[in-house]
Amino acid sequence: MSTRLACVVFEADRPRAVADFWAELLGWAVTLDRPHEVDVAAPDPAGLDIALTFLPATRQKVGKNRIHLDLASRSVDHQRVQVDRALSLGARRIDIGQGSVPWVVLADPEGNEFCVLEPREHYVDTGAVAAIVVDTRDPARLSEFWSTASGWPVTHTGSEVAGLRSATGLGCWLEFVRTPDEKSGRNRLRLNLTSFPAGNPAEDVRRLRAAGATPLITAEPDFATDAFTLADPETNEFSVLTTYSDFTPV
What we know:
alpha+beta; 8-stranded mixed sheet
């Protein structure tokens, strides 16, 4: 396996402001601050927490995102503290039809949905982010693709939910939750992969295409240089980042 999950990308109208919100909420730090990119990451370099990357938006947010973050809590009191902290930083409560549930659904200052979960044994050792959650019409199929792309094994799969986690048992989960809704338009949140330095980016793209990815050609700017953009089997956009500036995928 020569690609790994690198980050969750947020397209934002105000990248630095949204990055600051998430850094404060998670207790993470801004690790890169450029005009067209702001990165936020956990302070522990030994952990496997996935970074968050904030790029300028190319479109307005319409409807519910197909990717969101679930935040972990250690107790009911800690969950309440997390919610209050999020609200004080600029989040707001939202109703997406969740009904009466033990978790709290919020939106960040630009309307990106996220959940503050009640305490769950499943997420006791994940760190601040319990899971990256992807809406899908076929959890089993999409989890198989992202297992191939990330190198994370599928730990559980079913008709409603499937989950992946690093074989090291560190960091957050990547979970796929069934929804009847079809994807419409380009995602404002997406996943990015990176090639290992010793890997062959062209071979990585061939492998991902064999697993079900398709090339994505767009006239819109992608502010991540040295990247090749693909779509997964449900047309969710993602990029393969590489340090090879002369990389020409086939």
